[in-house]
Amino acid sequence: MGQSSHRQYERTARHTIQVATAFPRAASFGEKLQHLVSIGGPIGFIPWVPATWASLATALVWFALSRHATPSVVAIVTAALFILGGITATTSERVLQSEDPRNVVIDEIAGQTLTFFLVAPVDWQLALSGFVFFRIFDVLKPFPARRLEHLYSGWGIMADDIMAGVYGAIALFLLHHWVR
Q1: 35, CA 20 to 30 Å: which among 1, 110, 145, 175?
Q2: Torsion of CA 13, 52, 54, 57, to 10 degrees
Q3: From its phi and psi, is residue 146 left (phi > 0), alpha (psi between -120 and 50) or beta?
Q4: pTM of the model
Q5: Contact, 73 vs 19, CB < 8 A?
Q6: Based on the structure, what is the number of domains in the chain?
């Protein structure tokens, strides 16, 4: 897919910064609903680093739900988010005519969730550590995350963040057992 005419830019004195992609006006109700899911509702409208905000919100939710964060619950939620994200992110790419739209954050929500697979964030230090580990691996994209980005459409958007979640889960597990 090519670059979209829907992208918005904000100019500052020193930089041109891409801000959140516009909401698709020429889409059906179902496509708009799918897009809203893929951008994490209001989170996708945050103009500055929506991926980081989505990860932080997800870490806080899992911290609040920590007593329910068993590995099986985290795995089921992550799998559901992966499937939902693959479908909705594909729709967002199509209706925005943009490859990996900046405000699609369901991938960060799924990857951040997976980070808590092995260690529930039972205190604020674990929640913060899980958040930081996931963001580091999401930005660095260690092997094979960068390759996974090239999967078809929304599935590529989702897959690299799932890989970052795997690395984040391992790092959080090792930190938790090293500190304990």
Answers
A1: 145
A2: -120
A3: alpha
A4: 0.84
A5: no
A6: 1
